[in-house]
Amino acid sequence: MAQISLTHKSAKENRTSSKVIPLPRWTWHAWRRVAVLIAIGFLLGRANIEHAVSPFGLAYFAVLSEVAGRKKAWPAYFAVLGALTVDGTTGGLLMLLQLVLYRVARRYIFRKKLPDLHFVPITAGIVSLVSRLAMVGTVWTKYDVLIALAQGALVTILALIFVQCMNLFVGGEQTRTLKYEQIISVVILVASVVMGFVGLHVHGVELAAVAIDWLILVMTCGGIGISAAGAIVVSMLTLLNHQASLTQVAILGFAGLLGGLLRDTNRFFVSLSFMLSTTVLTATYAHSYQPLLMNLLASAVASVFYFLTPKRLENELRSYVPGTREHTQSERDRVQRVNALLTEKIHEVSQVFDELSKSFADTGENEYTAAQHLVTQIVSATSQSVCALCPRRAKCWDKESMQTYHAMANTLRNIESAGGRKAVPSAEMRDRCVRLDPLMNTLRYNLDVTNRDAKWMKKLREQRSLLSAQLSGVASVVGAMAKELDEENKSSLSDEEQIIGALEQLGLYVDDVHIVSLEPGKVEIEITQPTEGAYENSARMIAPLLSGILGEHISVSQVQSENGGGPCTSVFASARLFQVNTAVATAARDGRIVSGDTHTSVDLGNGRYTVAVSDGMGNGERARRESKAAIDLLKKLMKAGFDEKLAIRTVNSTLLLRSRDEMFTTLDMALIDLFNAKAEFLKIGSAPSFIKRGNEVIEVTGSNVPIGILQDIEVQSVEQQLQAGDILILMSDGLYDAPPHNYDSDTWLRTVISKLETKTPQDIADMLIETAVRMNHGSIRDDMTVVVAVIEHHEQEWAAIKLPSVPSLRKANKRRRGA
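^ Stage II sporulation protein E, sequence as received from the core. Prediction below:
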């Protein structure tokens, strides 16, 4: 940052309080931008078409006034000075008249509201028409009217074009992704500025020709499309002033095309190809030495200026052109900056929730101190009521306060121990107090009031504990989000370039590769392709190639494309090795319509699949409402990223607080990892679950009470390694307890499950319900629900493609970490 020192008059002040005042960073950049705007205004004021039409200055002034603001549009007044250098006083007065009339029209037409930018060019065109006719006088010829109409139309068109790109010059453009229409608008504006060099010569070399050649050379950094289209647009505008011919337009267009083709080489080859192409092609139609020499001198001088152009300017221009490496890197840097800022903010939010959780959890008191506080409160209230007018107060509370306090506390203990029976005062209290009867009555009353308050305080502590746990869960989820964003920002650029190189070897050219995660089993890679129908290439070639590079099977998880064509982004993720097929069968008590049981089977989206059964207390709508509330809340918490045990505790506390009635529900849940088939069973007061593996039947049990009964429950977790072909069966108590009393439920279910001959989930679920109903002769004594899940291998969609010249990305990462 630039700095300046302020020198004070006093030497003592210099020694004691000298300061270094930082110069604001925007100062140099702002004045540099102002200088550019002044130069543009001056040259656009000089630009004209055959000295008959000068539409450029007014169009520039109108657009700059609206985009930058009236107070910042003063550089456009330099167009008057430019017009003076070309057409003398008449041209300067006409330009000044146009600018003043536009300001007056702008003020009175759009006085109460800001105008739409699309109306500004029309207003400028009308002002140009009126001012042109006013300068002619009162007698107008047809030629005068036609010229005025032409200039007004050109002002309107140019203003419409300048509107699309003026933000770039005043610093208002916030994105670096420009549409091709905006890029061409910039080219037209710059070409209009180049027309201001017409008529200026240095030793016979036209500055306009040098400026055109230099501009085309600079535009080669944008590639074939930008350089060729820009060269044609620039040369066509000079054609309006007879500074070029159609042949020269074609020559410059081809030279720009050739230069854009060589943009990835160095400047020497670009400038050499430009000079040779323009000289050779000019020699084919020029029949004299002079035009050929002037063209060669102009291109040579332009090449010198091209070599002197800062490399930073080219990189800046490339960063605005979609498809270039600089633009991709610029967008990636911008996304990383945004993600870094977002990560920091999310981490701060996580810390806030964590601090809130700690503040609610840390009350600063335990059960002993709370009980002691309540005793003190009762004793204090009783002493103020009974002992206030007692003649022995001075002796009891002034001289022997501790003895009196302990005597009253022991009496309270006797009252509480007696329950509903008549309590006797303690021996110390009997010897000390002369007003025992009112004292005992007051103590009993205050104890009842305090016990009621204690219950509410306990309820409040329970709610604080619940809130603390929920805030802690939110903090962990938000912290995990911040960690994922941080890991995404650390993705290696070399890995992305290696993937791009491997794709190019297969003949696939993509716009961008962005690595979100390379963690085994959690791979996520985004690849952007230029065409909408890229899914076929993604499935047939890109995914198998990534599978070979990463050493694990990769699948296409998502394809996003813009409406009406355009870039297509495919998301590639680790393919699951297992899949789960589920089915459910249910029967309500006594054949009712509504069952009190609720079930769910859902893909959590992070490689885990959950199957759950909840049994509400009782039957009917009320039980269904409680079990459904438990299942729905649990599913949402887990999909949001909450730890499963914390989610169950949250559901338990919610059921406790939502109703004053005794409503509870059981929960039987299995979490299945689709990458390794490991299952985690969480059983809260539920019936046993069963796993059928061949002829073997494995029972999974738990001993917890149902949720919604106790404030603090211990969530038991049982892990089982599943295999392909395993049949997982979860059921409610209605099915488990279905056999008559002379049957053992475990033995009956093991026998029925072991005799299963089908592996179709729906057939198994239906058969278990039907068998239970038959054992009771068609009677359904309780709600019955069974969920059957079959674990199967996930079929691979393709084989991996391994290229000999492309090393494994995982091995390369290990070598880098080892180094």
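The CA atoms of residues 216 and 231 lie 6 Å apart.
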